[in-house]
Structure formats: structure tokens, C-alpha cells
Design goal:
Layout: E1 31-37, E2 40-47, E3 50-53, E4 65-68, E5 75-81, E6 85-91, E7 99-101, E8 122-130, E9 133-139, E10 143-146, E11 153-154, H1 156-159, H2 164-167, E12 177-184, E13 187-196, E14 199-203, E15 211-212, E16 233-238, E17 246-250, E18 253-257, E19 265-266, E20 277-282, E21 290-296, E22 302-303, E23 310-313, E24 321-323, E25 341-344, E26 347-351, E27 357-360, E28 368-371, E29 377-383
Length: about 375
């Protein structure tokens, strides 16, 4: 039976480019590690078997977001100035020089839940959807689309999602924020975002429409723990070789989906402390492998049992192995923020809130201290 004689055609919020597969534009012979700290951007380079630190960028300034273009030498850095607000900088020469570019700006009609005009408080993440097309996640919960020129525009379809006005709220912040953007490796129109607090949302049509993907999650702090929205994912990742598999470290556990986010399975292990935390890394070749770094609750925020450890699963979260060789095991207060853990090949690196950087070159079996006495580490990125 025909239900309507009117056909509504929805269009994506950014230009169509068809099917899209990400490829690194080239491999550098030198492995690089970018560290965003509360006092500057540190760039380490590995030559042969040793690491060397290049001159520090933005000395004395906090660097809360870093991103590297997969096709060029372009890097981005987000600097939250206490006086001037959030700023965005771009480098086209591996960090040797930097130029300021325009940060996202909320349109005048964008209002917060209290009716006040929305304004940019922080840039949390970036992700590519083309050689020079980017999505940017911000606080207070806006997703922006633009190019490296800085011409970012609010994705109004997500901002106007019916759950936002009543079911999104701040998690440790005054307002919700988008900290994870995941793009399907074969289709740039297929995107997931994670909102704290809001949950996971998916679009398959380039942002024309969005669907909440939070079935299976439990928000124990809500009157209705299984509500459609209001969940607090801390980090969301997608397995590139098997993009139906997604992982998230959540405020209320570790979750895994094998059907593209339609249902989330709780793979936590409370007895081992695998529940609360921020950091998550996955194996993009093996959808069963992942690493988390446990922490103790949102109120305490210290290493589990004051013992720093990484936990790895080889079977999709059914069992977890404790990896702590080379890590401090007594009176350790270190925790690892959501963007301060990364993997490249068999190399894992994480930075802590107390300024320590630990590295493993065998997927976590052994760890060594790469650097210490650094400022608080907010984000890092390994670059091949």
C-alpha cells in the first residue's frame, strides 16, 4: 500500500565523493610520536633504536588536540587559551612552523538547552573524510565540517537531533562534547560519533540523518539506565579490517559491538577492574584484540589498586590478560586520558596525567619508560 505520494529526498551535509578508502599517502622511515601536554607539543622521533625529542612547539601553552593528515605533511593542534579561548593551528612541514586558522564558530541560531547562544569552548577531535575534508568534534556538543582553510560549518542535522535538547548533558563539563569521530573505511558517508553525555550516533547518508546506537549500554547514573540517549562513552573505535566491529570504553564498562553498533555487549570484568577508564586501543587487523587501562571511578580517578597496568583481550573481551611488566606497581596515581593511548604496528604508547610516557614494542608484553617529568599529557599520536 502506498503510504505517501510525496517523496522526500535527503542530501548529505557535505559534498558527495562516492565510495572512499583511506590510504596513507606514504610511509616515513622515522616513527614519530606527538605528545600534547599542558605546557606544549612535544615531538619525538625514533631513529634506529633510540628516541629523540625535537624542539618543543607552543612552549608553555596547553595542547589538547592533535591530528595528522593521512595524505600530506599537515598537522593540526588545538590550543585552549585561558584568556583568548580555543584556538586552532596548522603546520605543513611536520611541526617546524605553524599558522593559525579559524576555529569553528557556532551560528547565532544555535542555542544551548538553557536557551543561551552556543559558543565554542573546546575542540576535542578531528577526523578526515577526504584529502582536505574534515569533521571536528567540539564542546558544547557540535559537529563541524570544513577544510584546512578553517571554514568549518556546524552540522545542523546532528545539533537538531531530537534527543539533544532533553537527553544530552555535560559529563565533568558544563555541556556535552563530541570526543570521537569514526569514519567507515570504505564509505565516507557512513560515520559514527560519540558524545559525553549523549551516546553513540550513526549516519549512513553523509549526515543528512542520524540514529542513536546505544542498545545494550547501561547508564547506571540515569533513572532509566537503558534510555535511548544520555550515555557516556569515553572513547569509540572501529576495526578498519572488519568495520562491523566497534569498541568503546564507557563510563559504565567496556563494550563491544559486532553488528555496526546495533547492539552493544558488555565485556567488562569488574573483579579485574576492567570497568571504568578512558583509554582504549584496538588491533585493526584482528577484531578480537583490544587494550584498556583501568582506573578507579569518576570520583577518585587513580590507577586501579594504585597499580598501573594495561589489560589485553585476544577473544573479544571474554577474557583479559594483565600486562604490567615495566610499569609502576606501588602508590601509582597515574591515569590515562581518552586520547593519550595509541598503537602503530606492535608499538603501544600511552602518556599519563602525571607526565610519564610508557612504550611497548611487543603489544604490551613489556613496557619501558620513554619520558618522565613532563607536564600532564592530554593527547598523543603515533605516526609511521
Amino acid at each position: 500500500m502506498k503510504i505517501s505520494t510525496i517523496r522526500v529526498i535527503r542530501v548529505p551535509i557535505y559534498p558527495m565523493m562516492g565510495s572512499f578508502i583511506f590510504q596513507k599517502h606514504r610511509k616515513n622511515s622515522i616513527l614519530k610520536l606527538l605528545l600534547g601536554t599542558s605546557k606544549g607539543l612535544l615531538v619525538y622521533e625514533k631513529r634506529q633504536h633510540s628516541w629523540h625529542c625535537a624542539p618543543i612547539c607552543f612552549l608553555g601553552m596547553p595542547v589538547s588536540m592533535i591530528y595528522a593528515n593521512s595524505y600530506s605533511d599537515t598537522w593540526f593542534a588545538g590550543l585552549p587559551h585561558r584568556h583568548w579561548g580555543q584556538k586552532l593551528h596548522r603546520s605543513n612541514d611536520f611541526g617546524k612552523t605553524w599558522q593559525p586558522i579559524s576555529a569553528p564558530k557556532y551560528p547565532v541560531e544555535a542555542l544551548l538547552q538553557n536557551g543561551k547562544p552556543a559558543s565554542l569552548k573546546a575542540i576535542w577531535c578531528m577526523e578526515q573524510i577526504g584529502a582536505d575534508q574534515y569533521l571536528m568534534g567540539t564542546e558544547p556538543g557540535g559537529l563541524f565540517y570544513g577544510t584546512q582553510k578553517g571554514d568549518f560549518q556546524l552540522v545542523k542535522s546532528l545539533w537538531q537531533h531530537p534527543t539533544r535538547a532533553q537527553m544530552w548533558f555535560g559529563a565533568g563539563k558544563d555541556e556535552p562534547f563530541i570526543h570521537s569521530i569514526v569514519v567507515h573505511p570504505q564509505d565516507k558517508q557512513h560515520i559514527y560519533v560519540a558524545v559525553s553525555c549523549g551516546g553513540v550516533f550513526e549516519t549512513k547518508n553523509g549526515g543528512a540523518t542520524w540514529e542513536a546506537r546505544n542498545v545494550g549500554l547501561k547508564a547506571t547514573y540515569l533513572p532509566n539506565p537503558t534510555a535511548e540517549a544520555g550515555h557516556d562513552p569515553h572513547l569509540l573505535l572501529l576495526c578498519k579490517s572488519n568495520p562491523t566491529v566497534l569498541w568503546q570504553q564507557n563510563h559504565c564498562g567496556v563494550y563491544r559491538s559486532t553488528d555496526g553498533g546495533l547492539f552493544w555487549e558488555d565485556v567488562s570484568d569488574v573483579e579485574q577492574g576492567i570497568y571504568y577508564g578512558f583509554a582504549l586501543a584496538i588491533d585493526h587487523e584482528n577484531p578480537l584484540r583490544a587494550w584498556v587501562i583501568p582506573a578507579v571511578s569518576d570520583e577518585v580517578r587513580v590507577a586501579h589498586n594504585l597499580s598501573l597496568s594495561v589489560r589485553r583481550t585476544e577473544d573479544g573481551g571474554k577474557t583479559w590478560t594483565t600486562l604490567q611488566k615495566g610499569l609502576p606497581q606501588k602508590n601509582c596515581f597515574d591515569i590515562v586520558f581518552r586520547h593519550a593511548f595509541d598503537r602503530c604496528g606492535q608499538t603501544l604508547v600511552f602518556g599519563t596525567t602525571t607526565g610519564h610516557v610508557f612504550i611497548s614494542e611487543n603489544d604490551g608484553d613489556d613496557w619501558k619508560l620513554l619520558a618522565n617529568h613532563l607536564p600532564k599529557i592530554d593527547c598523543l599520536k603515533l605516526l609511521p
